[in-house]
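Mods, move this if it's the wrong board.
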Amino acid sequence: MSDPIPLGKKEGPRLEFKGADALKDPEKIAREVVAMLNAEGGKVWIGLREEDGRAVAVEPIADPESEKGRLLNYLVDTIEPAISNSMVNIEVQDQGQGAVLGVLVGPAVGKPYAFLRKTGRHFVVRVGDRIRPMTREEIFHAADPATSDRLRTSVSKTIEERKEVLAKGEELFWMHFEPAVEVSLDIQDARFEEFLQNPQVTGNRASGWNFSQFQYRPRIRQDRLTTSSEELLKAEIRRDGGLVFSAPLEAFYWKGREENQIWPPLLIEYIVSALRLARAIYQGHVHPGDAVIVDLLLTRLRGWILRPGAPGVWFAANRPRTFTDDDFVLPQPLVFRFEEIESEPDRCGYRLVERFYEGFGIRREDIPNLFDAQSGRLVFPE
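Not the wrong board. Structure tokens:
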């Protein structure tokens, strides 16, 4: 038996109202359905006008059977993975005030779900009577149990290694990559040596600030390929897929400038160079849909300063921001799909740069404008 039309009821975690006009823009309905699939299910009523979240009147739907068919086709075409009648079912209801549609959602299997818009997949979840985007961490945790277990293990491993770095108490920049999938890298592969010594092979600048222009030939020791101890910067490629890039903080201020002042282009290019290297190293070893955990740590950073804006005529006049904590630590390591790193490593690097600037209380608009808005690539003036 169908549910009675819920006039007078308020929207909640499992209840949403849409007016009849929503059928003209079915993406809004698909978004609600996906959000419920990724939560606990529920019902979306179409043809109910709401005020302050409460259903107040029926807005009859003309030709409801045709609208039902069109809406169902749209949902089938735009929701991934494929939905079944047991997960999403549409019914026509008319209790004397005109026809409305009820979209019954869930319970769902095969999470997480996404709706397609243009060329993108959008993951959303219902929280209370609202919808918000899912974080990457939530997307991966919502996947099959085996994937979730691997993700948790890799995140835990990364955090444990982070603790070891913090315990050393050095002034250090440290980036760590950990695939959430079993990986075996041939550390004697000659390409890896080339990646660490020829910047242009990995898309880095020949004369830039990056982790791919080491002077001395890397060495093999204890299941890892590492750069020489004579180098200021350090890189490590591990047989199990772990990657580490590190440098003393003194590498991040520019000669002739105030010590303990981080030079923005230098910091940004080092971060992006590590992402470009990871892309080259993992290609052929990590699948596009696999997760890669990325962590960023700057230790003993208290008292270091960072200026908003891009270096230029007025840069020195910008009020410097001083870091007041002992260390810069992400609340949680970031999780990327490898396809993101593979296709847009610079955009991934920007996410880390943005988090770092937030640590100094600097807004996004005051990050140096070195990323091309259209391509997302890091671009330095010639």
